[in-house]
Amino acid sequence: MATAYWEGEKTRDKSGFWQAGHKPTLIAAFLYFDLAFMVWVLLGPLAPEIAKTLHLTAAEKGLMVATPTLAGAILRVVNGLLVDRIGPKRSGAISQVIVIVGLFTAWLLGVNSFAGTLALGVVLGFAGASFAIALPLASRWYPPEHQGKAMGLAGMGNSGTVFAALFAPTLAKLFGWNAVLGLACIPLVLVFIAYMIMAKDAPNAPAPKSLTAYLHPLKSADAWWLMGFYSVTFGGFVGLAASLPIYFTDQFGLTTVTAGYCTAACVFAGSLIRPIGGALADAIGGVRTLTGVFVIAAIALAGVSAAPTVTVALATFVVAMLALGAGNGAVFQLVPQRFREEIGVMTGLVGMAGGVGGFYLASSLGFAKQLSGSYQPGFLIFAGLALLALAGLMLVKGVWRTRWDAALAGVRI
Hints:
Elements: H1 17-20, H2 23-40, H3 43-54, H4 58-86, H5 88-109, H6 114-128, H7 131-139, H8 147-155, H9 160-175, H10 177-183, H11 185-198, H12 211-214, H13 221-252, H14 256-272, H15 274-284, H16 286-304, H17 310-338, H18 343-372, H19 376-408
Helix pairs in contact: 2-6, 2-7, 2-8, 2-9, 2-11, 3-4, 3-9, 3-13, 4-5, 4-6, 4-7, 4-13, 4-18, 5-6, 5-7, 5-10, 5-11, 7-8, 7-18, 8-15, 8-17, 9-10, 9-14, 13-14, 13-17, 13-18, 13-19, 14-17, 15-16, 15-17, 16-17, 16-19, 18-19
């Protein structure tokens, strides 16, 4: 049981991070998020093999790997509302059952067409929507001064994309790519059991509101700014995680297994640094952290567009993912400071924006390749979006620091 938790806007826990919340719930949130993200991007590592079997074009490959991202973005809003209505634990249980049943059915019946891959992508979107459940599940147990660390550790579950990149291509070579869909159900079931045992809803959940009241944060410009920033940081992260296996095989002729290893290295960097980004935001403020994030991400994404060798491309992608991963943690240090009472729906809304950014990047890279013969335009445009986000941050940071500091008694933003 937690020894301390948020009980009002002015209540502040002075104990250390590990004593401030509920560790079993934090672990359960991480495990759920981790395995959900593993299957959310599963079509990316399998895409080269699926494309060969189903004879997909570059644009179709891009749309296939982008569909789970878009579905997850939309469903994050649904899950955010569900969290505030029935609680994060039950919401997570429902979502996990849908994904497990969907994957098992796809394995049993087989996926034999491009339309079938899109349908599977929608089912996998429920896994991507876990974001709007796992983060509030953990966040509600921790006071403001520990939000960056709590959200960062729970959010580090996006490291599940590493497992997909590492193991899916090898398993597909051994058993066929359709068998991977069934094999994925095994760890999902194990984590579901652990989740049901360990997770516990925080006792400080806000009272249920009307559906229109849940969307009240959208009347605030702050919500739209946070959504925009996350569409770049998380959108870049998940868009690259889904697209890099295709990029490495198409651009440099790597095997699917080697491309998976390269993708895993990039994704691991972005996942590992997420809690560090949250902790850094706790220490120096989310605004300062994001400033560095957008500058580095823009430079790296522009640089990778002209990378001459796979070694240079890999190194540049790692830098980009480090920046974007830190940015993910920084944004979610800011969200609960401004929208504590609406954390469920705001996690869904901000997460939706991140998913939309990922859908744009993954799909646009495929279309760029098909229309121009190069991935360069897609990377350059996204680098420009990072600079646009930086300009927006410079515009709002003064207002945020003045208004938010008064309410948060010095918590750094």
